[in-house]
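Let's practice the habit of predicting before peeking. Look at the sequence and jot down your guess about where helices and strands might fall. Then scroll down.
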Amino acid sequence: MANSSRPTGSQIERSSVQYEMARSFPGLFQNGRKRPSTSVSCRFASMSNKKWKPFYLSIFLLSSNDELTPLPSDELAFMQAGLGKRTVSLDRDLTHVELSRLLQATYPKMVELQDRWLLYKAGGGNGRRKMSAIPLEAEGYTGAMLRKVSGGGKGTLYIVPLQDELDLSPLPANAPEFALMPKASCKHCFAEMPLQMLALHDRKCASHTSPDLEIISDDDDDVQFPEVLQTPVPVQTTKEDHCPQQKGDVQCPICGISFPVLLIEEHASHCGQRTEDTTSPERELHTETDDISCEEDVIMWLKSKVDTSKTFELCVSRDNMFERGLKLWKRNKKATPINPLRIKFLGEVGIDTGALRKEFLTTMVSGIEQRLFEGVKSKMPNYSVNDFDEELFRIAGEIFATSIAQGGPAPRFLQRWCYNFLVSGKLSLDQVLDPSLSPLITTVF
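Done guessing? Here is the structure:
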């Protein structure tokens, strides 16, 4: 009996093997026994019990049956017509009928399609891509199917009308298609509209709201300059003998010699390099005794005030001309903007005879318009304390004056009240249409 209770050699060997296996693979063996494996049916049952979260899908409603995706530049036109891109939330058990109702609620114009539409998916690449139809299942489009086709909502699906063509005319701002979009009020007419529509509305509103927003342009023949003409200078010559518009020859404001209109600019660029000693007394008397009788006289009078004893030289790079030009303009202490401007570009050999100066001033005036002014056509200065502390507005004024006096472009983008204040120092609140500026101007003045 004692011998029968002792473990045999095979039992000892089997127990040691089980012990080693349990120590090496504790996840598969528990207490020396192999863990029972879970059946396939149990695993699928646990997966089916997992909660299925809704997902977001980007959809794009087209206006007609097209094989290519729309251009990015056309998306704003689709949006204004109540079409375009939207984002919807879908569930797994969503049916085709429920999907149709959801799309009709998102796009009210889809009601007239009467379910005559299909979903398309675009291929890879850039620009306008070719689209292919998504085949329907036996029960139509379902939530689970759309999630699989769109990669979990990562791709955009396109709704393509099969036999109808939707209208692309812009909808009013209070249309039901824009009910959920963020809105803002126009600062000119105070009309409330979606943010995407405000950009195009501002172009029309700024040009039709008030004649006070008229642009100061050289093309306007009826523009009067009463404030500029308040400081008259005695006259010796008549208007007919002096205005370049009425005579073929123009008198150089520096040396007093007459040249044809086509040659006066080139001559003035060379003549401006002369020193002040070369200026004749006759020319000094002429500039001090002329009367301003037309707009060209104003420009010529300003040119006569340029001090040619020094040159205002700047060396800039073409890659970052505007930013570097502002810094160098502010740091230059050897001369002032009343001296002739001379430009040199880094890495280029050449002497500025007028063309480089004009190119630089054109770039600077355009950069100032985009950096320091706001608006579409008729613009006003930005409200920026940092730009004011950095004296950027003072530099902008110096660049404007230099550009007008030395052959560059004029800032033809100012609102009427801005122009009147610059030339006269007077300000009329009736011309300021921005309600946020009127109290501030009243406090300052």
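How did you do? Residues 229-305 form one domain.
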